[in-house]
Design goal:
By secondary structure, the chain is of the alpha/beta class. The chain has seven helices and seven strands. The chain has helices at 15-25, 43-55, 69-74, 87-93, 99-113, 136-155, 170-173; strands at 4-9, 29-34, 61-64, 80-85, 119-125, 158-163, 166-169. Strands 3-2-4-5-1-6-7 form a seven-stranded mixed beta sheet, sandwiched between helices. It catalyses: adenosylcob(III)inamide + ATP = adenosylcob(III)inamide phosphate + ADP + H(+); adenosylcob(III)inamide + GTP = adenosylcob(III)inamide phosphate + GDP + H(+); adenosylcob(III)inamide phosphate + GTP + H(+) = adenosylcob(III)inamide-GDP + diphosphate. Keywords: ATP-binding, Cobalamin biosynthesis, GTP-binding, Kinase, Nucleotide-binding, Nucleotidyltransferase, Transferase.
Length: 182
Amino acid sequence: MGKVILITGPASSGKSEWAETLAMQSEKAVIYVATATENPTDEEWHQRIQKHQKRRPQDWVTLCVPIELSATLADAKPNTCLLVDSLGTWVANTLEQDDANWENTLCELLETVQLVAADMLFVAEETGWGVVPAYPLGRKFRDRLGFLVRQLSIICDTVYLVTGGHVLNLSILGSPLPAPKS
């Protein structure tokens, strides 16, 4: 298994920039796994994507993977570093799955991560630090992403929290909880 790192935190806190820094430090060929899809009618979304693209070195390969994340990770070569940005967008892309299919998708991802020889960096948004969403789909998203982040953190070598433009190594500062029951 390659090195697995999770970078989590609130929106616009610097998560992606920290992940990009770690990817460059890996000195491996970097594959940027973008879970977002372009929406030609959403100019603001397009500008966000462009901002991320401009920061990345030209030699990084970009793969657009809105759904099939496990298959993409499984195909990775050992001498590469995959930067997955972001798990929140990936979870949003899979929200139409019923609970049983989601559970299978989640288990497949977690199993795949443990088998891949490449280094992997996962960027994930922290949700649920505020008001409980007033609508079912919002609660489903928050709960699925929170559970995924917690499960993934158990198998990560390092977990970082990026907030307020500062990076905290939770693997050093914190103590992991036992694995949650589904």
